[in-house]
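USER:
Try writing one entry.

ASSISTANT:
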Amino acid sequence: MIERVGGTAPIEVETRVVAATHRDLFQLASEGKFREDLAYRLQVVDIQLPPLRERLEDIPLLTQALLEKIAQHNEQATPAIDKAAVDKLQGYTWPGNVRELENVLTQALVQARGGSISADHIHYINEQAQPGPQGPADAPGEPAVLRTLEEVEAEHIQRVLQHTGGHKGRTCEVLGISRPALDRKILKYRLTVG
């Protein structure tokens, strides 16, 4: 039962909760960082989904589905994507998982300007720090370049701002965030607009 703000009568509702996390909720509960009763309520059906980097064979189908979704959202026809572009997508480690794939495809669709998407339209958050599985390995004895999530996020937002010419509305569409959220991140990371 719920009662709307300003309402006078309770309303009966039936809901299902679909939650996703990469954390072990029961481990967090044992550390006092999550309510154990809530962990049990959420764990009715547990589906283990490996990260995108462990299922690169799914990329062609995911790419097609995401391009259809993005094109529909932007009221455009679904663009074709060439094999070289799909191969490039499959040669990346996808630290941002499916959400990063969706952002990369959104950028590619914008760059393709109504034409088909080629490998030249595919750009990652940080191509130097994140080579794909076929990319060069770190030199022996040299540590891998690891960056914080905030550093990666700030660089990605700045890159999208540059790509859109500082147009905040288009930047929000590419990033999938609201205008207030973008403004907060611009202030937080001291980003340049335009």
The mean pLDDT is 84. Residues 13-48 form one domain. The two ends are 49 Å apart (CA to CA).
